[in-house]
Amino acid sequence: MEGACLISKRNHVLATDQWVALNFKAQHLNYQKKKQSKTHPHSFSASLIKATKKKTIADAVIFDVVTSIQIQRLVRDIASFHHFNVQRCECHYYEEGDFISLYWMKKFIKDSKYLLIFGLESEYEGGDHVVHQKKNETSRYQPQSGDILLSSCAFNHEILPIISGRRHTVLASINPL
């Protein structure tokens, strides 16, 4: 669909050891529940992945996978730019009833060109990632373990409530260099 591309696990963008490392490190992060506000409703837990010199080993492993050669090639093939920098990177953990509204997601992807989402090991129902496109059209994605979603930030995004289970993802907003 225009503006978004779901790359399924069977396309083997990342090596098996990269997925294993990404899942393992993401499971051992400290997650904090995001506080809701009336103007920016949301409900989920997150752990910020830092790209600074003081990053933890878990942050370094996750950040290295997000910026790996394989992901740079994927972005180049789909979005037509060779290198990118990560504006913001977070691991998200959603439980039953958790969601992200259009308003909160606008804040997350602000000033970014693309959004990368890595589906980590999880089983859930609901929790569709909705991309609102031109002319009131929407596309729905449900990134499963090993899937990668690359989407333009020119469109609005939201994550619908989880009906059952738990969803675990890595989100990275990126810009071309």
SSE sequence, one letter per element = EHEEEHHEEHEEEEEEE
- CATH topology name, in short, is Jelly Rolls
Proportion of residues in helical segments:
10-25%
Supply the CATH architecture: Sandwich
Instruction: Kindly report how far apart the N and C termini lie.
Output: 25 Å
User: Rg, please?
Assistant: 15 Å
**Tally of helical runs:** 4
Structural category is: alpha+beta
- Going by CATH, the homologous superfamily would be q2cbj1_9rhob like domain
Regarding CATH, which class?
Mainly Beta
Low-confidence stretches: none
The 3D shape can be described as globular
The count of domains is: 1
Tell me the fraction of residues in β-strands, as a range: 35-45%
Give the tally of β-strands.
Answer: 13
- Largest sheet data: 8 strands, antiparallel
Mean model confidence by pLDDT:
90
Mind sketching the topology for me?
Layout: E1 4-7, H1 16-27, E2 32-33, E3 42-43, E4 45-48, H2 57-66, H3 69-79, E5 84-94, E6 99-100, H4 102-109, E7 114-119, E8 123-126, E9 129-132, E10 138-141, E11 148-152, E12 156-159, E13 162-176
Antiparallel strand pairs: 1-11, 2-4, 3-6, 4-5, 5-13, 7-11, 7-13, 8-13, 9-10, 9-12
